Amino acid sequence: MPEHKRKVGERGQVTIPKELRDRRGIKGGDEIKFVEVNDEIILKPPTDEERLAEGYRKRAERSRELAEEMEEASAGATGHLGDAPGWSE
Fold this sequence. Notes:
By secondary structure, the chain is an alpha+beta fold.
């Protein structure tokens, strides 16, 4: 895991490295959470409703794509092997 070091300014400000901001989708004006766990401080990027919704939309689309792929594969197998004996719907 790459390590990024930054100096803390006199007012306690720290700049989050651009690489991390880009990778986590953090933009100027976003609200970041600071969580203290044992002897560590964890920064948590925002998880607003639109970001969550976009993630769910992508997941739903991928699920539909996989279902279509499985349907095609299943139909191909049935055509090649025939129906399973004793199979009823």
